[in-house]
Each structure stands twice: as C-alpha cells, then as structure tokens.
Amino acid sequence: MTSIVTLTLSPALDSATRIARLCPDAKLRCSEPRYAPGGGGINVARAIQQLGGSALALFPAGGPTGQHLTELLAAEGVACQALPISAWTRECFNVTEQANAQQYRFVLPGARLSEAEQTQMLTALADLPEMDYLVISGSLPAGLADDFIARLLQIAAQRGARCILDSTGEVLRQALAIGGLFLIKPNLNELRALAGEDSDEPDQLFKVARSLVDAGKCTAVLVSLGPQGALLATRELSERISAPTVNKLSTVGAGDSLVGAVTLKLAQGATLSEAARYGVAAGSAAIMMPGSQLCRRADTDRLFAWLQAHTASGVLD
Question: Which of these is catalytic: 14, 166, 214, 256?
Fold first, then answer.
C-alpha cells in the first residue's frame, strides 16, 4: 500500500467557541469550547482518515497542550509520531459571533524548535520505514536553521518520496528555489506574490503556474480559489475546476481537506486531474461543516460524483 506521511512543524491545539456578539472591554460569555487537533499536516492526515485512507502524522509536541493534541489524534484513529520538545504546543482559537455569523480566527505563533529538536525532526523523517508521499503543510516556527528546508527536501528526494507542499512566504520560495517538488498548492494571493503581480485573469494565472512547471520547480501547481474552485497546471494540461455551490458554515480546514483528498487520490493511482477534482469536492465538503470540522466522506463522494458528471458533460469550466 502506498505510504503517506504528513509533516507539521507548527501544530496547534485548536479550540472553537461561540459568543452572542463581539464587543470591546466587556466580558464575553462563550459557549463550551470544542477542542480539535490543528496544524496543516495534521489536518491533512485527519482528512485522509475521514476519507477512508491512512497517513502518518509527524510533528513536534510539548507540554499539556501537546499531550492533549496527541490524545485527540489517537481518539480519531490517526496514526501519529509526536516528537517531544521543551516548549508547549501552541493553542489557536476560533470564535463565531452568532449575531452576524462572522468567524474570527486567532492564530498564535508556533513553538520554537531548538537546533537539537530540528535535527530530531529530520532524523525521524529519514528513519521512517516507508514514505511514498510527503506532505509538508502549514506555517513554520521562528528560528529554523537557514538550511532546514534544503535538508528536508534532500531527505524526501533520497527516499524517492513525491513531495507535496502547502505553505506560504519564505518556505515556499526556498522550496521552489531548490525545485523538484511534485505539487504545490498556493492560493490566489500566494500565486500573485510569487509572480509579483495582481491579476485575476485565468490565462495569466495559468501562465504563472506553467512557468513554475516548465522551470522544473514542480510537476504540478494546484491553485485554490476558495468558493470558485481551483486551477490545475501541469506540462500536459491547464484545467479550471469550478466548485459546487454549498451551504457555508466554516472555512476552517477547507484547504487541508483539499490537500488530503488530492494526496489520497494520487496514492490510489488517480490522475492529477481526477485527484484535483476530488480535492475541490473535499474542500467544498469541509465548508459545509461547523467549527474546525473537516470534510465528511459521504459529502465528498457526492460532490465528487457531481463534478465528474458535469466535467464529462462539458458544463464545468
């Protein structure tokens, strides 16, 4: 069976609550909090589990928050390898204002990793018995060594793993400068930043994405467009995938659900085009869920069937 590993360098214990109305200075009475594992790669592994697959989540964990995070993952049946660190795992807060159904997301910085802890992460990755796909997802903690990303990608290359990257800013730029990635998943703003321009035109976006592929930076670029779906660019095709219309409850976890679904489909032998449509279906399914809940398999499969039917009939852009 194809092995999927996810790497999360800034995991989080996510808590979600509701308030009647957000206002300054007053004591804001909140509903009972709901806790969930958080962090890009962790959520990718959770989404894969929800969709009937399996992945190993590798991440640093420290303090009571790190222990709680690990226990929540175990309760969901997600395979994980938590590497101990001295700092406490961060907490992040999602607050929904009931008066207008607005959601506020408070994201704290990730726990800083010492030099020894960074080496521990890389050694654990290199020592894994199997790794066909490596998903690197989420933000990075401050203080990483300048050559950390290079060493990370070198391990993936030595293991023959297809590397999927969903991150922003400097890590994305560093990884693209090294090249050899299998797939990157920038959103629209991240692709604009890479290109140094502010365009919404599909033709121009495809041109930017294809330039990365043609330069050997990656095999494929999947640009997430939120409720508008996604753009997929490879050497062989440029495809726009329109998302189905769904009832929006929360955007938390939609991107991670997309990446998880894409990775799972690829591991099952699907084409990039088919995997991208399954990813859009999973991202749409996640939007239908409240709080920080991820996609459900039944919703994802139903939306994927709709996308497949409309693609075949030529309705989809």
Answer: 256
